[in-house]
Design brief:
Keywords: Signal. It is globular, with a radius of gyration of 18 Å. A 12-stranded antiparallel β-sheet has the order 1-7-6-5-4-3-2-12-11-10-9-8. With 241 residues, it is mainly beta.
C-alpha cells in the first residue's frame, strides 16, 4: 500500500500518487554525485539558451477583448518538442511548495522528464506516456535526494502528472477555448491563454504568437490544489530524454 509519507512526498515534489508503487529501492553514492553534477550543468545550460524570438509577441487586434472587431481565434498548433527552465508554485490548505529546474518534453518519445530542486533536495522524474493504466494514470520513475542524504531513493508507480505531454494539436483535440491575452510573471509581452479539460482537470495553457508554450496553470479539484508553472529559456527542437 502507499504510505502517508509516500503521498506527502509525491505531493510535495510534483505528482499526486493515485496507485500503488511498483518498486522502492535505494541507489549508490556515485548516482548521487551524478545527479548533483547534472543539477549544476542544468544551471549552466539554462543560462546559455536564448529566449524565444521577439516577433512572437504580436497578436492580431481581433483577439483584444471588448473591441468591435473581436473574434474568438481557433486553437493553434504548438511546438511539441522543446526543453525549458521552469519555476512552479503549488499550494492548497496543507502546503505551499515552490520548485524550479529543467524539463524535457518529447511527444515523439511519449516522454516528459523533469529535473528539479526543492526545499534543499533534488529530484529527477521521468513520465512514460506510452504506459498508462485504465484510470489514465501515467507510469512515473522518480529519483530523489533529501537534505543531507547520502543515497538516492528511487520510486516507481502510476500517477497523475504535474507535467502534461504537449502534442502539436492538443489544443485542437481538447477543443480549447480562448481565454484572452494575458501577462505572465517572467514575460514582458502578452501571450494567449487557452482553457481546456486535461484528464478531468481544468487547465489554462499560455502560448505565444509563434505557437510556443510558455507555461500553464491548473486546479486539481480532489485536493483543492492550485498549480502555477512558468517557462523561460525555452529551446525549441528535438529532445533526447
Amino acid at each position: 500500500m502507499v504510505s502517508l509519507s509516500d503521498l506527502q512526498k509525491a505531493e510535495r515534489i510534483h505528482t499526486v500518487v493515485l496507485d500503488q508503487p511498483t518498486s522502492s529501492i535505494t541507489g549508490t553514492r556515485s548516482t548521487m554525485k551524478l545527479l548533483w553534477t547534472l543539477s549544476f550543468s542544468l544551471v549552466a545550460l539554462a543560462a546559455s539558451i536564448q529566449s524565444t524570438d521577439s516577433s512572437c509577441d504580436d497578436f492580431p487586434t481581433s483577439t483584444l477583448e471588448f473591441t468591435s472587431e473581436f473574434q474568438q481565434p481557433k486553437p493553434p498548433l504548438v511546438k511539441p518538442e522543446f526543453q525549458t527552465s521552469f519555476i512552479q508554485h503549488k499550494w492548497n490548505n496543507n502546503l505551499s511548495h515552490i520548485t524550479s529546474g529543467y524539463i524535457y518534453f518529447s511527444p515523439s518519445q511519449n516522454l516528459v522528464r523533469a529535473d528539479e530542486a526543492y526545499d534543499g533536495g533534488l529530484a529527477s522524474s521521468i513520465f512514460d506516456y506510452s504506459k498508462t493504466n485504465k484510470e489514465g494514470l501515467v507510469l512515473n520513475k522518480l529519483t530523489s535526494y533529501e537534505v543531507n542524504s547520502t543515497d538516492p531513493t528511487v520510486w516507481m508507480g502510476y500517477v497523475m502528472s504535474n507535467y502534461p505531454l504537449f502534442t502539436e494539436d492538443f489544443l485542437i483535440r481538447g477543443d480549447a477555448v480562448f481565454g484572452g491575452l494575458v501577462k505572465r510573471n517572467l514575460l514582458t509581452k502578452h501571450v494567449a491563454s487557452w482553457n481546456l479539460m486535461y484528464s478531468s482537470i481544468p487547465v489554462t495553457v499560455f502560448v505565444d504568437a509563434c505557437g510556443v508554450v510558455v507555461g500553464y496553470d491548473y486546479f486539481s479539484p480532489g485536493l483543492r490544489t492550485r498549480v502555477v508553472t512558468d517557462f523561460f529559456n525555452i529551446a525549441i527542437g528535438p529532445v533526447k530524454v
